[in-house]
Predict the 3D structure of the following.
Amino acid sequence: GSGSLVAALIARIMREQPGLTVTVTAVELASRLQIPLRETLEDCRETARALGVRVEYEIIEADFISWGTAQIAGLFEALPGNRRFDLVIQNPPYRKVGRSSPVRAHLQTIGVDVPNLYAAFLAVGAHLLTDGGQMVAITPRSFANGTYFKAFRKQLFSLLGIDRLSVFQERGTLFADLSVLQENIILTASRGRRPEKVTVVTS
């Protein structure tokens, strides 16, 4: 997107961890969003510098699934230049993955088979995390429900433990422009950790 979630993260870091160095990798396919994304990240860098927070960034103009699966395949093979991330933040698109789509072919290279694009984003994001790293994702409340998601659930929760679920009950306004009636959540989960308690917030 245009970087609003990254900007919120940088703002929090400036408040809570002054002096930190942050390296951002932003993956965005849409060419129309490249300029606003760069402007947001430049603004973050300049604003943070005044408070002693160093922000470095790279923008990758690519499809997240193809880029992410290539990174993961490189990690499997221990290729140089491939890396894991401490934090993955995403607001995935809500579309189905067709049987013959390139997305499905990319996912098969890392052993993932899912019916929806948001589940694909979650699976790839989980694989890109360091041990102890955290993922924050805006998803449908039913992101892992039903038989279709059984293999996805098993794989995702073999990697991640849920820390927090923020549930938004309003169905008609968040995606009004897309005519989507969807209950949404913000999922926060950590790789390699199983919290004894999960915090659930409803608003």
In short: Residues 163 and 197 are 7 Å apart (CA to CA).
